[in-house]
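Figure 6 in text form: structure in, sequence out.
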């Protein structure tokens, strides 16, 4: 049974650049299926704000054959040792919309999740470069919706120039996340997400795009002075 992970760590600039340029590969990390290594971003911030792209913060979204492969990476791989000083969460696959290459997405859920259980959402997209201005126009309101939503425990974004963009969010419950997606939340301008999806269907921003939903399994380390983003995980 494969395991997905999402990692965040702060590093010196040179280490961060090296990590982005040489993302971990299966031959360098036994048991790794695929990893996307990106620069962290502040979700919802102004595009030209100095806080938009966080050059010293590395985000990795990865799929592994098993937990032992994750432990081995964090203990013995040079990048893994850097990421081990940060925070990561381990995830069991629930559902996918869209498609993305390189990962081996299961055909069926690995776990089950009740509507009131916490859930993690990851989006991953490969941009059509001419569509980036449209994507920014429609995407930033959605970023702010997720960032400010009372049901979101934690949210962030990441990028690997020039084409790959991603978001990551932890939700108090699956119900609150799906309400947000469908425009049913009791928040200002609740239709921001559904309107952006309609615009994407009209004319796609991406040549690859997926939204993945996960059940959180376990959580390790500290991020921005906080541990245990999800109570009662190991």
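Output sequence:
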């Amino acid at each position: 049974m494969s395991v997905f992970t999402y990692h965040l760590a702060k590093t010196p600039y040179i280490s961060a650049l090296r990590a982005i340029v040489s993302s971990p590969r299966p031959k360098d990390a036994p048991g790794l299926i695929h990893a996307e290594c990106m620069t962290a971003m502040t979700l919802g911030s102004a595009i030209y704000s100095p806080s938009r792209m966080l050059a010293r913060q590395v985000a990795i979204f990865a799929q592994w054959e098993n937990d032992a492969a994750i432990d081995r990476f964090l203990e013995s791989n040079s990048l893994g040792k850097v990421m081990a000083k940060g925070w990561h969460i381990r995830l069991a696959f629930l559902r996918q919309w869209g498609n993305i290459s390189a990962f081996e997405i299961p055909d069926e859920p690995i776990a089950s999740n009740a509507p009131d259980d916490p859930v993690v959402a990851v989006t991953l997209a490969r941009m059509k470069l001419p569509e980036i201005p449209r994507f920014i126009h429609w995407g930033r309101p959605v970023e702010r919706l997720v960032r400010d939503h009372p049901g979101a425990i934690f949210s962030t974004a990441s990028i690997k120039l020039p084409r790959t963009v991603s978001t990551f969010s932890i939700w108090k419950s699956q119900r609150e996340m799906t309400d947000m997606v469908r425009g049913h939340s009791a928040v200002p301008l609740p239709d921001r997400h559904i309107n952006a999806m309609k615009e994407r269907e009209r004319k796609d921003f991406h040549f690859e795009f997926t939204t993945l939903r996960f059940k959180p399994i376990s959580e390790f380390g500290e991020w921005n002075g906080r541990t245990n983003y999800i109570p009662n995980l190991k």
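Caption detail: The two ends are 19 Å apart (CA to CA).
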